[in-house]
Amino acid sequence: MQCVGLGPFVPIPPFDSRIYYKNCAYNGPYNACNTWVDEHMELHQLEAFSAVMSAGSITGAARLLGRSQPGVSRTIQDLEHEIGYALFDRNGPRVAPTDRAFLLYAEVERALVGLERIRASALAIGRDEAPPLRIAATPALAAALVPRALAKIEAHIAPCETHVRSASAEQVVQALLSRAVDVGIATLPLDHDALRLHYVIEAPCVAVVGRNDPLAAAPIVKWSDLAPRRIATVANLYRLRRRIDRAFESAGFAPAIVLESNASLNAVMAAQANFAVAVVDPATAFGTPVEGVVARQLDVHIPFFYGVATSADKARSPALDALIAAIDAVSHELLPGATRHEAGQHDTLLSEPVKKPARNSKRSTRHTAGAEV
């Protein structure tokens, strides 16, 4: 079996067959010490291990799996015996994962979800249906764009089942490269020889403030007005955060960033609590409405870039092509000032902020003044 896919733990009914658990990078049975393991690993052992990691206890794992607590405990002991090292530190009824357990869990999680995906595809084939459409996207884009885009697909080509995986941009790329998903939607950079980038969407970042904040009274927030304010924003220094920091540097002041997060929705919630002004991407601001806050245009242009990509050499279904087109349409309907750029502009867009739409760009005409989220 090959390990494919990324995603949360999904309980799978036990199989009678035995499997080899392989690490894709080594094309051989996995061991956290990067050595070869000659023993078989049984699927129910991997399920038990994953359940204990998820539940935090043997008793909780037994409830998840519908098995007895002594049975799960013996299964974990058998697995530890086969791989040659302890996965948990025992302290009476409580267990604590070892460092090696966390390393192994990432691989086991992918394998179990991969098996579930194979099962879903097998059932679809038996019903003469198209296999499930598999999507990976960063959390903001998954929430804001994917459901709206799916709703636009015509019924006769719409997939019967869709799997959506929220992940970091780096994990979205990994999922595409491993063919665990059919399409990825992620912030730039999104450039790899094995991927086909279909287009890039650009939209300006916004400020999100509490409805009663003084900054909410104006349709446009001056960047200089943020100098005395506490700021909440995103954390990834290699993506959007770099452009936000550059805007602060250009304005000549160091912001008081009191909250940074890998999920921009957390910054919006800080604005709702009147803890800080959120400087975030427009997908979060307009795609996931939060009561009690308003989004305001900034007087500086901080571009938010994201792209839609598929595997370069993998055939696309009509449903996938329709989804790719629908994401473009939803982007322009939802995000004020959205612009589409051709894939070939990827590197140019990242080299410096874009002040004007390119000649081959398509810009949304939606206005932001007074927009509430």
Provide the helix percentage: 25-40%
Domain count: the total is 2
Q: Return the string of H and E elements.
A: EEHHHEEHEHHEHEEEEEHEHEHEEHEHE
What's the quaternary structure here? single chain
Number of separate strands: 17
What low-confidence regions span 5 or more consecutive residues with pLDDT below 50?
1-39, 354-373
Q: What would CATH call the architecture of the largest domain?
A: 3-Layer(aba) Sandwich
Basic shape? globular
Amount of beta strand: 15-25%
Radius of gyration: 23 Å
The helix tally amounts to: 12
CATH class of the largest domain: Alpha Beta
Largest sheet geometry = 7 strands, mixed
Q: What average pLDDT do the residues reach?
A: 83
CATH topology of the largest domain: D-Maltodextrin-Binding Protein, domain 2
Distance between the termini: 46 Å
Category from helices, strands and their pairing: alpha/beta
**Which sequence of strands runs across the widest sheet?**
6-5-7-15-8-16-17
Explain the overall architecture.
This protein folds into two domains: 22-122, Arc Repressor Mutant, subunit A; 138-373, 3-Layer(aba) Sandwich (D-Maltodextrin-Binding Protein, domain 2). Helix content is 36%, strand content 21%. It has twelve helices and 17 strands. It has helices at 43-55, 58-65, 69-83, 99-126, 139-144, 146-152, 169-177, 240-251, 264-272, 282-287, 318-334, 346-351, and strands spanning 22-23, 28-29, 88-91, 94-97, 133-137, 162-166, 183-187, 195-204, 206-210, 220-221, 230-234, 256-261, 277-280, 293-298, 303-311, 339-342, 362-363. It has a seven-stranded mixed sheet with strand order 6-5-7-15-8-16-17, sandwiched between helices. The longest helix has 28 residues, at 99-126. The protein is globular, with a radius of gyration of 23 Å. Mean pLDDT is 83; it is low at 1-39 and 354-373.
